Amino acid sequence: MSVIFYGCVSLDGYLADKNHGLGWLHASGSPEETEYDAFYKTIDIVVMGRRTFDEVSKLGSVADIYPTTTNYVFTSRNDLEAEGIQTVSGDVVTFIQKIAADKRIWLVGGGGLLAPLLEAQLVDRMYIQVAPVILGDGIPLFQKQPYSRRFVMSDVKRYGQFAELVYDRLPANT
Amino acid sequence: MSVIFYGCVSLDGYLADKNHGLGWLHASGSPEETEYDAFYKTIDIVVMGRRTFDEVSKLGSVADIYPTTTNYVFTSRNDLEAEGIQTVSGDVVTFIQKIAADKRIWLVGGGGLLAPLLEAQLVDRMYIQVAPVILGDGIPLFQKQPYSRRFVMSDVKRYGQFAELVYDRLPANT
To answer: Hey, are the CB atoms on B161 and A147 less than 8 Å from each other?
Structure first.
């Protein structure tokens, strides 16, 4: 499998404000300007945390928003049910490693899911769109960790007021 | 005066590692690839904190590194003396506001100096070079703050493994 992060952050590195809100993001311009549709078509499996699921659900049904992918929500709740999702619990690294080699997995949101995957060196590609806003506080994309990780920057693009930075995993043995 | 930030950060937003070290940065490629020389020629005054001064001093004399500018170091120590610098203490906002209108000020390093200037909406331009490294922890460029600040992204460039993002202050009344 390959694991891909794709998402927006503020200039100070937050995925969302302290209340998990995205109003600042919508105020930064239209996501239509990006190549999101082309990206989504390449994805087989969507993985998100429960907080991200709650935010996505405010915009509509996950079955409509992510219609062609298998969508997993990590949660410790047994009672979470919604159209278009399957719930999972436990270790995200173990879960990801069991997925077939030809599948492309999009990690939506979720610093809490990203951190163990970065530590396990399982993140193959990151598309990070930087919005021109210093939020001041919020939910960080990258949590504090006792390790460092180096990537290869493979592309830099501009979409309106967003800068998109693309990073790939270092080849093995480097 | 105009106030400009120009500097490198890790992908997770740190200016330096926890020990104020920059080894991760030097490992990311040569700064010669950027337009630093052209940038420095436009600057009249350099302002830095004492920690940044200590780091710069490891590379050589400030008088040699910043030879054509007036260089101020913010410090509460009275005994700091070095060739090519003047020490200042007190409020950075008050200090900056007294500088003549035609002067261009480069804020080197220093999340601690940047924060009050951002709050006072005195930062006119930021050149941020993003290195392809998740450091995990360190000295953040943007400190946590109870306010948000929106900028206008005016340029995105690539220099080897660095992405340079350029932001300008929003015009007044927006």
So the answer is: no
